[in-house]
Amino acid sequence: MERVYTVRFHRIKRTPRTKRTVKAVRYLRRFIGKHMKSERVRIAEELNLALWKRGIQKPPAKLRVKAEKQDDGSVLVTLAES
User: Fold this and answer.
1) Any idea of the CA torsion for 49, 52, 53, 57, to the nearest 10 degrees?
2) Can you tell me the distance from the alpha carbon of 76 to that of 53, in angstroms, rounded to the nearest whole number?
3) Which has the closest alpha carbon to 67: 59, 58, 75, 56?
4) pTM score, whole prediction
5) Could you read off the pLDDT of 48-68 as tens digits, one per residue?
6) Number of independent structural domains in the chain
């Protein structure tokens, strides 16, 4: 199963500046786990680099991601092609 989502990180603005990208990674895992019905969510290296590109204080406002459910029930999340 494969799906494409646009994940908005609008709730991250309320957290302290020095924890925003860490919180964005946690929010992404929770969002994908909820929508794909899986507890095991793996984030690809390219997506992780896109989240951390501007540092810990300024994560992106939104990202378009592709979630692909594997045979063992885990989900691999990558950047979606534009």
Assistant:
1) 180
2) 20
3) 75
4) 0.93
5) 999 999 999 999 999 999 999
6) 1
